[in-house]
Amino acid sequence: MNCLKYTINQSLNEAYAHHIQRLMIVGNFSLLAGINPKKLHEWYLGVYIDAFEWVEMPNTLGMSQFADGGKLASKPYVSSANYINKMSNYCDGCHYSKNERLGEKACPFNSLYWNFFIVNTSKLEKNPRLAIVNKQIRSMDVNLIEDIKSQAKKHIQNIETL
Q1: Is the distance from CB of 48 to CB of 41 less than 8 angstroms?
Q2: pLDDT tens sequence across 10-36
Q3: Burial (CB count <10 Å: 0-12, 13-18, 19+), residue 70
Q4: Which domains does the chain have, with CATH numbers?
């Protein structure tokens, strides 16, 4: 995944990444993959030279990881590969296809994104800001939902190889 590789390498080499890289690449992936929010918070504090806990902790736990259940942010800040492609050039030359939802070449962000909403439907279905996503899930074929969940599970189990 070019986006994660570039952002994490930049973070480790320069002790810095733009807020959007932290939120929509590292944070997005971490939330979708089910990474422990407190571990991500600790990683940010240890890696980023400009990470001060009084700012970083609420941004990470409340905004990026939605770990406060929506007190700080009204909806989870997550996206599929489509948003990452619109906001960056990371998808150019990536092994994964930003346009495929499922399959060996499909960008992991796609199945992880849909899986997040499928798995968390009961928590998020009443959120008016997520009405379109929830409507799309309700219209999905049961087999598609199972395929998304299966692919997301494989990605999470093989997280080190993505």
Answers
A1: no
A2: 999 999 999 999 999 999 999 999 999
A3: middle
A4: 99-161 (1.10.10.1710)
